[in-house]
Amino acid sequence: MTTDSTVKRLDDVSGDSFATRDKESGAKAQGMYLDPEIQGDLLTSGATNATELAQESVKAVAGRIFRADVVLIAAGSAGDRWLMLVDKAAAAIDGDLPLKRSPKLVGDFASMDFGVYGVLCSRGIQLVLSTSPSDVRLAPAEGLFQWDVA
Length: 150
Fold this sequence. Notes:
2 domains, 5-stranded antiparallel sheet, 4-stranded antiparallel sheet, about 45% strand
């Protein structure tokens, strides 16, 4: 396996470390693979029930969120919508600033993936459907939310 034109091959691949040799000089380089692992049963998933909501209080204490999805299910939803992540213990209100925001919803679905490390929320985790791209403007109750948090 080669990763670019200067790497000859991977040698001594064992567990979490690797070694390579440069094609021209023959110099050996070593490194470690970074593969974070959540210990125990810390990761939990959740979803709203069959009731449409404008927002979801995922956690009222500090936590880390890895993924958030929303599906619009209200018939005749008009206007643009954004899925927002708000770092707050209490329910979000109009004017709150989001920590993260999805691109404008195209169709009836939005998703935000925060990668392997997720996003740390120091106060709480609120997911909100907003009619404004810059701050929270609560949309009508029209979405079902899903999430993965720790």
